[in-house]
Fold ATP-binding protein.
Amino acid sequence: MSDHALVRMTLPGIARSVSLARRWVADALTAAGHRDADDARLVTSELVGNALLHTGSGRPGGLVRVNVFEIGDALARIEVIDEGAPTVPKPREPGDGECRGRGLWLVQQTSVRWGNRLIPLQRHLVWAEVSTLEVGGTSEILGAGEALWQE
């Protein structure tokens, strides 16, 4: 099974870029014939939002890159490349009263697998693979996505 690039975008490190990325990812998947882009939208929002909040991408003049690949006809991989941070992205389960901190936990819950790695210039590439099959009936989380770390 080979990957096929659907879209590559570089966006300014501003809040509006989250919704732009989310829309472009969904539009690219829909145009390629994928039937369900909901998980891809959520993952894109969380990963781009995290890049803007926690890395150099959110500073004035910062940039964030988003790549979308289809893997066969039922899977998509979303990659977000930030401008670096002193910490490694990792999920945590927030307490009941916390309003923030659920981003990577949501990515973990909605993806088939996900991970991150350092790339040149101390940047992070965080990725997630999500199903794009339309599923009917009730939904149930059967297991969290597998997390991978590469250096």
Summary: Residues 38-54 form the longest helix (17 residues). The mean pLDDT is 84. The beta strands are 3-12, 63-71, 75-81, 113-119, 123-131, 146-150.
